[in-house]
Every structure is written in structure tokens, then in C-alpha cells.
């Protein structure tokens, strides 16, 4: 899916861009019970098999202790940045009214957070949700967390650890776009460069129609008119697909719209990942780690690059029906069909760290980040208005979905507050389209406590 954004119900099922120019608000909170602080930097959440965290050091992203593991108390943001993406290549988180704004500005004194555990338990009870984990972060500090349901279908496997990894889906797009725009900032690329000039091989091999008309800007904003690649040609669970294979599958599909017209297609972000690899000389996985994951302390986050590479450590399993309607474990998705469009595996903490850094301008100048957060040409921002007068105003966050899974990260306009949630499901695609509204209800429960 595209960069992060809320999806106005009126525009379903295609995702739309996040709200631009939303009002920023202040947040304040004391460290939650049980948190351990070491000077200005709290201890990171324990994640099995995670990379050792780095000590505080001087980096462009550091503030007091910026790039350390779960970072300074109140930090964490999944994808602080992306504007409109709500669906992932493999499946879309469609029609989610996840962008909320307060009727009046919030202050550090009046921001209230309800019972996250209770909200998740209610969410599981809505039906066909196997398990749910969620957490609220303020200035990088986890102040509320919860886990409901179970790791496996039928109440088996125990609870999902709140620190468990999960697929973030199209939230990946914001990260890929950020890496591309950092290359623009470094003078290695222009958003107006033609695709045929940056990746001449895609034109020479006829992998992308009209590559000489499509710009990097078109790819980021999903206005290239390039068809999606998802379908029978990319459905093998074990084949290691190359990006060129995905482009070839896309090329066999009819062009849905003209260049310059918005159309959600994951192929755009496969191409952006290829651009990152060509200009950096590194794999997309390595470059995302170098530019984002390591500096932001996202030590549990990674981009799988092999078909059978799954989610590390104990985690929730999702389920989807087979041809006979029987629910099958969908834990093993082919990672090579997602890549820069939706392949990242992360945690509540890490995804919140990204969102925080993005919204606070620590990854890109506004002149570039607005290409992710502003609506694409011809699209309107999601409607404003929220359920909690006096509570935080939320900017467009990000969401992603695939068979058996849905995840979302909602962030405040100033990047100080995040609500991250991951659901494992046992439902078909039609019912999965209802999960964004369920997450919205959980959001209201957490941030609109009864007064």
C-alpha cells in the first residue's frame, strides 16, 4: 500500500492520503509503572532474538538519546510519516476511518488514556479475531499495553506477548518512501526523474509500460498508472520471486488509469525498493536497517528477503479459509511478494518509533515528507472531526493487512503519542475489510474514556 493514511469510508475500498496541515497538540505523561529508566533513556522492551541495542551516541537522529533501542521514554513510532497507505500488497486494510481529530486542542494535563486491555478484549469479542496486542506510547514511553485472545486458534498457545513481532503490511510503504526521499535529500535523485532514466532496464526489457513518462513522484504518490502484480502469477508460497518477476506479472495486466491519476498499486513500491538498491549499492533490507531501523533503535524490525522467511520469536498466527472454506494457518506468507510494498516485520514499540521520528521531522524535511503525507493529485484529505473533544488530535497513521492479519499505528499530529495495534484473524477477505472500523472503536475506547 502507499504511505500511511487514514481511509475515508466514502472512498472505500481505495486508500486515501492522510490529513495534511492538522493541528499539533501537546502531550505529557509520567513513565508507566514497571518501566526502568537509565538516565534519559529507558531500558528497551525485551524482544527475543533482537539485535543488541546501541549506546547513546551522536547521530543526526539523536536528541537526548535518540537512536537507542526503544529510545527515550516516549518515543516509538511505527511510521510516523506515511500519508495515505492503508493497504498492503498482499492484502489491503481498506476503508478505515482511522484519522481522528479533537474538537479542541489537548494539553499535557488533560490527555486521558483508557484501559487498553479492556479495549483489546472487546475487540477480540467482535468475532473471528484470534488475538490482539496493543500499546500506547507518549514521547517514546510505553504507558499502557495489553494482550487479548491467544497465539493460536481455539484458545491455544497462550497469550501473544506484547513485545511479539508481527507483519506491519503496507505500513512498510512509508519506510520505503522515506529511504527514497532521503536519497533525494542527498542529491542522488530527483522526484521528477523519469523511471526510464533511473531504472533503464525496466524500459529496455519492457517491464513497465510508458516508463519514460513516469516519475519518482508518481511512484510515491501512486499516480503512475502501473497495474498491480498480485494474482495467480505471484501466488507460489515457496518460490523466491525477484522484483523483475513481480514487474513481469504486473506488465501482463491492463493499465487501470493514465499516468497522473491515483490508483493503488503495490508495484509502485516494488520499483521504489529497486531504486533504493540501485542508488545505494545495498539490498533494500540492509538500507532500511542502516537508514531507519538501527538509528531509531528499532532493533526487532527487519525486512524478510526469502520466500519462507517468517516471523521470528513467539507471535500470533493468523488464519484464512482454503478453497473448501476450512481455516488454514496463514503464518507463512511469501516474503518475496511483499518487499518494499508491505514486507516489514516489526513490533508495537518499533513501529511507534518510526511514526514518532517521521512526524517530528527527524527523518525528512517537510518539503519532502509532504510528498508522503499530502493527498495525491485528485484526492481529498480524510474528513476531520473526532470522538474525543479535548483529547489528542490524530494525524493519518498507517495500516496494513494480509490474509490472517491486520495492523495499524495511529499517531498524534505532533508525533508525541502513538497507539499501535496488531490483530491475528480467522476470517475471509470480505470480513477482514471490517477490521479497520473495529480498530477505530478500540481507539475511541482508549482515548475517549467515560467522564
UniProtKB/TrEMBL annotation:
Compositionally skewed regions (Pro residues) per UniProt: 374-385
Entries under Pfam families matching the protein: Beta-lactamase
Region annotation (Disordered) ranges: 368-400
Gene3D superfamilies tied to this protein: DD-peptidase/beta-lactamase superfamily
Span of domain Beta-lactamase-related: 116-390
InterPro entries for the chain: AmpC-like, Beta-lactam-related, Beta-lactam/transpept-like
Gene Ontology molecular functions: hydrolase activity
Coiled coil: none
Domain of life: Bacteria
Keywords of this entry: Hydrolase
PANTHER family associated with the record: D-ALANYL-D-ALANINE CARBOXYPEPTIDASE, D-ALANYL-D-ALANINE-CARBOXYPEPTIDASE/ENDOPEPTIDASE AMPH
Protein name: Serine hydrolase
Organism: Nonomuraea zeae
